[in-house]
Amino acid sequence: MRARIVDGEVGISESVGVLRGGGVVGLPTETVYGLAADCFNPIAIARIFEAKERPLTDPLIVHLPETKWLDRVVCLASPMQHAMVDKLAAAFWPGPMTLLLPKHPDLPELVTSGSEWVAVRVTSHPLFQEVLRRLDSPLAAPSANRFGRISPTSAEDVRIELGERISLILDGGKCEHGLESTILALRGEFLEILRPGPITHDHLIEYGHIHASEPALNVVNSPGSLPGHYAPKKELQIINTDINGFIPRESSGLLAFATPSQEIINRYLRVEILSPSGDPREAAANFYGALRRLDNSKADILYAEPVTAMGIGVAIMDRLKRASYGSKNKIGHQKEQGALL
Ligand code: TXA
Ligand code: MG
């Protein structure tokens, strides 16, 4: 099977047809591409896990076209929970915010990996919304990459990741945000950020006390916050020293946040610049694509320039640390002490 990339009206109706028949389709969202299936069809859901080679213990996010659909997949427990969801939904939906809420009993357990909680979000992508409305059922969709690998931000990326395992990808262009949604758990008056994303600490501060200690790489509070996620095939090291003085190994690639000097560029076989002007939002949007190009380049080892961990920079650094986690084991390279994270 070699996935076809389709677009426009024909693409939407073909996608709905495949989903109605219990199949899976690669669909664009405003964050990253998702691999979607009807969330009320357990066999279709099983196909997602199979295509991604994802452990059944790692639950899926359910997508809606509008907040009104929330009652189809969740059962809110208390008036306080209602009030908090209403406030957050009014502020951030449709958009890149995922909430962990009590699951509706009709929702198959496979979606939530047996948990009583479901992760749910209202997507703002017009094509995804249109598919949802025509299908008239919410869609479960994890990012459309093989488990643990780099998330796709274009239809072609999905074909590279899963093209031999699925039949259809709906092309919605390049993803606007480029990083996965912010995942929030509501803990009484507290909001806990389980996965940093495009909705940042600063956006959330007026909606509750925020529990946002930097997510630890070695603590799993949401199964997907695993270390060693979003990873390239090549060794990836984060530069933790002045990039001007950093001497890379031969034949290396650099993931640069802003445009470096020519002298720095000359030290690398290949350089990818996330944002020429150093704009963190633009850097986030380009992050996975640039990492993927470096991974496919002739470079033997990849280095990344860290970004300031503020705003969306928190999410970029979270992905970068996970992408580089365990890298030293890939080709047995000795890290220079103190120079690398
Ligand atoms: O932006 C996004 O969120 C993208 C697009 C496609 O919507 N989706 C995405 O899905 O990133 P995925 O599966 O790659 O990541 C979802 C994360 C995983 O870390 C998973 O463990 C966590 O959400 N998650 C999902 N359901 C959960 C649940 N019931 N309890 C705890 N964590 C959950
Ligand atoms: Mg993912």
Characterization of this structure:
By secondary structure, the chain is an alpha/beta fold. It has two domains: 4-212, Alpha-Beta Complex (DHBP synthase), CATH 3.90.870.10; 236-340, 3-Layer(aba) Sandwich (Rossmann fold). The protein has helices at residues 8-20, 42-52, 79-92, 109-112, 126-135, 155-162, 201-204, 262-265, 280-295, 312-324, 328-331, and strands spanning 4-6, 25-27, 34-38, 61-64, 97-102, 117-122, 139-140, 168-170, 182-187, 190-195, 209-211, 235-238, 252-256, 270-273, 301-304. Strand 2 (25-27) and strand 3 form a beta hairpin. Helix 1 packs across helix 5 and helix 9 packs parallel to helix 10 (312-324). The longest helix is centred in the C-terminal third of the chain and has 16 residues, at 280-295. The N and C termini lie far apart (41 Å). Mean pLDDT is 92; it is low at 331-341. Residues 29, 31-32, 34, 58-61, 96, 98, 100, 112, 115, 117-119, 141-143, 180-181, 183, 222-225 line the site of threonylcarbamoyladenylate (TXA).
Name the shape in a single word.
globular
Largest sheet: 9 strands, mixed
What is the helix tally? 11
Give the names of the bound compounds: threonylcarbamoyladenylate, magnesium ion
Distance between the termini: 41 Å
- How many β-strand runs? 15
Q: Helix amount, in percent? A: 25-40%
Question: Could you list the spans in which at least 5 consecutive residues all have pLDDT below 50?
Answer: 331-341
CATH topology-level name of the largest domain: DHBP synthase
H and E order: EHEEHEHEHEHEHEEEHEEEHEHEHH
Number of domains: 2
Q: What is the CATH homologous superfamily assignment of the largest domain?
A: DHBP synthase
- Strand order in space, largest sheet: 2-3-7-4-6-5-9-10-11
What is the top-level CATH class of the largest domain?
Answer: Alpha Beta
Proportion of strand residues: 15-25%
Given helix and strand content, the structural type is alpha/beta
